[in-house]
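Record type: monomer structure entry
Structure origin: computed from sequence
Chain ID: A
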Amino acid sequence: MSIYKVTFSYDGTNYFGWQKQIGQQSIQGEIERVLKQISKSDELQVVGCGRTDTGVHAVYQVTRITLAIDIDPKALMRALNSQLPEEIRVIDSEFAPEDFQPVFNSKSKTYRYVFSLKRESNPFLKNYVTYLGKQLSLDKLNEACQLFIGEHNFEGFSTKGTPVKSTVRKVTSCAIKESQMSYGPGLQEDVLILEITGNGFLKQMVRLIVSSIWSYAQGKISKEVIVKQLTEPSTEKVAPTAPPQGLFLVKVEY
């Protein structure tokens, strides 16, 4: 068996998330389908560093791929890119040691969430930006961001998924800045981007953090409500889950 570290970039708009699901089109499912054709074998395994949800994108999804054949990593990259849908691309491929585990070996992950204060969506960006239609203070947004930095129990900012040993995670940075996104030749739209880095993230954790930050900036909840949810987690969420559009996995450090 040969083991590879393969990094993918994908547009998750038309997929039911990363994880393979019966009867649904997923990123992992598409990769495994093509690998079976390349290796001419069902004996393979694909493990990703994170399970992105339906409609969520990844600039940098690191995987461990195990195959029954021995193929040069760059040849594997070319073969995958020639047969995968255009929304899924391999950006790097190399041999990996037997003990490489993309989830447990990662030191940090960085996500970005792109949103706009405009009400009317841009048809070219609607799958990559969430449009709020509300006027929010950047200072207020960043005040809330600061509350999430540090080591906390994020159980109250997650949903049930694959069982985990602990819901404690450490967020090392969280901030929102003004930026622009291109959508055509010489055309750009003003957006806000939240960037958050941590040693790991629970299911829908980033989207629940984002929605809580919005709610604070709108005056719907106080800082005390957020802090209490971090110290005394409740199953009752302090804000609804933010939409998947606009969420990108952008970096994984090893």
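Annotation 1: Helices lie at 27-39, 73-83, 138-147, 205-217, 223-231.
Annotation 2: The chain has two domains: 2-95, 108-253.
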